[in-house]
Write a structure and sequence with these properties.
This protein is α/β, with parallel strands linked by helices and about 200 residues long. The protein has 5 helices and 10 strands. It has one domain: 3-Layer(aba) Sandwich (Rossmann fold), CATH 3.40.50.
Length: about 200
């Protein structure tokens, strides 16, 4: 299976010196990319500016901003593609009403799965190696993974994603092509990987 993962923040410029961003460390996205690679999948990792080394085996795409003004909602763009043949998973960082907000995002962005976490706690979520998530699926299933290492959560999430994709598609699952990727993220540029 081919897996496309976005991770980390973007920096939306206000002027040549200042920008608007968020506190995303990218740790959960990078853990998912590594877990997918470990499970034998091909991975494209699109990352905003973070202090993490990308997995060597992933195709790595570095971005700073999501688009020129107005910014494009990447998840919404992918979720509403006509006749898509890939699983769409969104993530929701919430400070209250976690499950309700995840269900709303699932509907509005036309996702198959939304993974939500409560980022109001100082000891998990943003900038932490720990997380606790609620997984909301289009088919009505709900599942919680209690507070643990992001690497452990990532392995469980990859299993859930593969199972969901297998159920949804009778043929080999496909992902966004390079052409579609450039339509969604026009300023993205793959970074060539150099063998050590």
């Amino acid at each position: 299976m081919r897996v496309l993962v976005t991770a980390g923040p973007t920096r939306e410029p206000i002027d040549p010196v200042r920008y608007i961003s968020n506190r995303s460390s990218g740790k959960m996205g990078y853990a998912i990319a590594q877990a997918a690679l470990d499970a034998g999948h091909d991975v494209i990792l699109i990352s905003g500016p973070v202090n993490l080394a990308p997995p060597d085996e992933a195709t790595f795409v570095s971005v700073s901003t999501s688009d020129v003004v107005p910014t494009r909602d990447v998840l919404d763009s992918i979720g509403h593609r006509q006749d898509r043949q890939f699983l769409v998973v969104g993530f929701a960082a919430e400070t209250s009403d976690v499950e309700e907000n995840a269900e709303q995002k699932l509907r509005e962005k036309n996702c198959d799965i939304v993974v939500a976490n409560d980022v109001s706690s100082a000891d998990s979520g943003m900038d932490s190696d720990l997380n606790e998530v609620t997984i909301v699926s289009r088919n009505g299933e709900r599942r919680k993974i209690l507070r643990t290492q992001k690497t452990i959560i990532a392995r469980e999430l990859v299993k859930i994603f593969v199972k969901s994709a297998t159920i949804m598609f009778d043929k080999k699952n496909v992902t966004v092509t390079e052409t579609q990727l450039s339509e969604v993220i026009p300023n993205s540029s793959p970074v060539p990987r150099v063998a050590d």
